[in-house]
Write a structure and sequence with these properties.
331 residues; D-Amino Acid Oxidase, Chain A, domain 2; six-stranded mixed beta sheet
Amino acid sequence: MEVGIIGSGVIGLTSALALVQAGYSVTIVARELPGDDSLRWASPWAGAGILPYPDSAGHDLQVETFKYYWALAHRDPTSGVQVVDVTEYYDDRSDDATIWYKTLVPKYRRLPSENLPANAKLGFQYQSMTVNPAIFLPWIKILLERKGVKFIRAEIKSISHARSLLKTEIIVNASGLGARVLANDDKVIAVRGQTMLVESDSHEMVMFQGSHYTYQIPRMYSGGVIIGGVSQEGDTDETVDLATRTDILRRTNLITQDRFRSVDLNKHVMKDLVGLRPSRTGGYRLEREGSVIHAYGFNTLGYTYSYGVALKVHALVTTALEEKRSQQSRL
């Protein structure tokens, strides 16, 4: 039972984990592999918070992901996953009727309106996890290799190219932005993000959404926090925009009661991060097309969806193989 996976981002890697744990033999082929410092893939540049989103589909996928990372944070801190306190603010809704995950997350509580910053209409707190991709991606690669997963570095030109290279009938297409070509999907679009890793000992994640998209996310073992951000659809500029740096700092201070007021952008920024998120107009694609399972288009929520997607990929692979066996038995 052999399965090939295109892409070694968080979706491809967690899909490999779910498959190999179920007894499949897995080979991953990708242009970039964990440890690569390239802007041509998104997973290393994520914040990354395990942060369910009120207005997105696939609640079940997010629930399974939350449970996986919660267990991992308690079981193995060398994975780069940690439990943190989260504060979320919104200025585009005034109650928590849409916050479906309030029954999932520990220690959920609404904040009094007088405690809300920056014209926010809703605020609440709970516990979740953050992931340091610089640690997690190499960690899961090592874990997979120990379980027998093979990695091939190659730039795939087509699904048939992947199949000829991998020698597997079943292909999982977790190619992110590459799916625009590999799946001939013109709905796939890059969404530019820009953040900064800033010196800080804060262990709290703060998120503001609605009229602007601003956050701070602790990055385990780094001595800093990620502050951001922007979401610029169709922009593929990989250079750091200086005006955006200034605006990010201004907005972050707005939502954190000036926590970073003493930050000097010329002295205290440990690293600037620019990444191109793999988005898809109309939402992500998670479905089977014959012997190909497509799993891409998760935009900012790749980590938040990852393990739930992996379980769904496993189910789709199993269905594809069962159909194949049924067809063979009738011949």
